[in-house]
Amino acid sequence: MLVFGGVVTIQHWTPSRRRPKLRDMATTSFTKKSAGVETTVEPGVTPPQGNPETAFVKKPKLTTGKSRKREIPEGLWTKCPKCSTMLYDKELDENLKVCMKCGHHFRDIGARERIHSLVETCSFEEMDADLESVDILGFTGAASYKEKLETYKKRTGLKDAVITGIGKIHNQRTARGVMDFSFLGGSMGSVVGEKLTRMIETATAKQFPVVIISTSGGARMYEGMFSLMQMAKTCAALAYHAQAKLPYISVLTDPTTAGVMASYASVGDLIIAEPGAMIGFAGPRVIKDTTQAELPPGFQTAEFLLDHGLIDAIVPRKEMKDRLAYYLEFMMTGKSRLAVA
Ligand SMILES: [Zn+2]
């Protein structure tokens, strides 16, 4: 910087390109500052060893300035737990929460998203949308059942862990029950059981096939025996539905376990699952501790159960609607006169 008669002139000077004269170096210390990085060049009479062109450039020292680590904004990207690829949320949603790289099926797809992907547009008529759980046992704990219900209602926008109704797949009207794992782990309480039972009874009366898409951690412990009774109630309704010679397709998604797997989820005329879904009654650790035996690899996955005959097919999420339509068309042969709208 040079001063001429009060006028300040800034000369362009690049320290890395032009070496200062020896006399300047003896008396002056050059400091270059840029955001977060400070480079100090100490004066010295003897130039350091090495290339004289680069000897002047010293490794920058990090200052106490703010970290410039690149941060990824939350809610835009999701890391695939299987292949670790960072997936753009918008694309992931459009792909029905299936990893675009490795095909991993994320479990956090909501009931409404599923319904949207499995019925013809605007054809779904929801049933019993206002049915809500009550704290019949006065369950207490770290947080009461009542408080938990309120929290999950706000968080998910749902009234309980299942949505039921009638919707069309291609031309076929179908009674549909879709569970949502984000509401108290998709647990089955009185309302889940009652909504499914009413839906199945409507299907029997109107000659509709039933499709239930399950995802659940089991019976809802906050309702004790009342939740366990739903296992018998839903299966009894399905038995009447079967007596009317109507098909029931059970779709198992990740995870389907315990009381739900031990009741309506495992009594389908056709049982299909999503790839990689965890399906079982008790968890693997409990079984291992009880039986004191090593569990085979892939135990309780959809692929293992298909190999051992417990399920009939594995269908990727994106193909689910067309495959359900294909199965229903076959199973409803001779009945379509009544069920088609
Ligand atoms: Zn992946």
Describe what you observe in this structure.
The protein is of the alpha/beta class and 341 residues long. The protein is 30% helix and 19% strand. It is built from eleven helices and 14 strands. The protein has helices at 22-27, 89-94, 111-118, 145-156, 190-206, 224-243, 258-261, 284-291, 302-307, 320-331, 336-339, and strands at 2-4, 7-9, 30-34, 37-41, 61-62, 77-79, 86-88, 125-127, 162-169, 172-179, 210-216, 248-256, 270-273, 313-314. Strands 8-9-10-11-12-13-14 form a seven-stranded mixed β-sheet, with helices on both faces. The protein has a three-stranded antiparallel β-sheet with strand order 3-4-5, with no helix packed on it. Strand 10, helix 5 (190-206) and strand 11 form a beta-alpha-beta unit. Helix 5 packs parallel to helix 6. The radius of gyration is 32 Å and the shape is globular. Bound molecules: zinc ion (ZN).
How do you describe this structure in short?
With 341 residues, this protein is an alpha/beta fold.
Could you name the key traits of this structure?
binds zinc ion; 30% helix; 11 helices; seven-stranded mixed β-sheet; alpha/beta; 341 residues; three-stranded antiparallel β-sheet
Q: Describe the sheet with the most strands.
A: 7 strands, mixed
Rg to the nearest angstrom? 32 Å
Secondary structure class reads alpha/beta
The total of helices stands at 11
Report strand order across the widest sheet. 8-9-10-11-12-13-14
| Portion in strands | 15-25%
Output the helix-strand order.
Answer: EEHEEEEEHHEHEEHEHEHEHHEHH
Spans of at least 5 consecutive residues whose pLDDT stays below 50 are 1-18, 20-40
Oligomer: single chain
The CA-CA distance between the termini, in Å, is 86 Å
Bound small molecules, by name, code or SMILES, are: zinc ion
Instruction: Estimate percent helicity.
Output: 25-40%
User: Which of globular, elongated, flat, extended, rod-shaped describes the shape?
Assistant: globular
What is the strand tally? 14
What's the overall average pLDDT, rounded? 81
